Amino acid sequence: MKRALAIDGHSFGPDHPNVAIHLNNLAALLQDTNRLSEAEPLYRRALAIDEQSFGPDHPNATIHLNNLAALLQDTNRLSEAEPLMRRAMAIAEKSFGLEHPKCAIISENLRLLLQKLEKAQAKSNFNGNSNDLRYSSYTGGSSNFVQRLRRWLWD
């Protein structure tokens, strides 16, 4: 993969969309082999290349946004992942429509991310020092949680 990346970078230039594809693929390989700190800058560069080449709302960006958000989840940076995944969903919905398989994949990834965020927040509230905070998160705040949970289950 590194060789293909080097060849395309030399042939087309370092900011060509073909280079973004190879960067994304190499980043995925690094992510799959738990070399997350090496993968992140490659995903970010692939995203930057496609945004520069096609514009920030082009459907090609959804791939890189989704993959970068997944990597951020793997490094437990959920709050950083959420806006990227939401942006990917907005672009995919606008570009393809809600019934498209890409929207279904991104929607499911967003749902899982939001579920992890909710669990992290609940755990944080539960582990807090204030009984009032814990109580409020499970009483007054529960209706909001239940509403979101219902939407996740039924959407």
Structure description:
With 155 residues, the protein is mainly alpha-helical. The chain has one domain: Tetratricopeptide repeat domain (Serine Threonine Protein Phosphatase 5, Tetratricopeptide repeat). The protein has 8 helices and no strands. The protein has helices at residues 2-12, 17-32, 36-54, 60-74, 78-96, 101-126, 131-138, 142-154.
Unreliable runs, pLDDT <50, ≥5 residues?
Answer: 129-142
What's the overall geometry?
A: globular
**So what's the CATH class?**
Mainly Alpha
Label the structural class. Answer: mainly alpha
CA gyration radius, whole angstroms: 19 Å
Our count of helices gives 8
Instruction: Say which CATH homologous superfamily is assigned.
Output: Tetratricopeptide repeat domain
- What amount of the residues lies in strands? under 5%
- The counted number of beta strands is 0
CATH architecture: Alpha Horseshoe
Q: Average pLDDT value?
A: 84
Residues in helices, as a percent range: over 70%
Descriptors for this entry?
Serine Threonine Protein Phosphatase 5, Tetratricopeptide repeat; 155 residues; 8 helices
Short précis:
The chain has 155 residues and is mostly helical. The protein has helices at residues 2-12, 17-32, 36-54, 60-74, 78-96, 101-126, 131-138, 142-154.
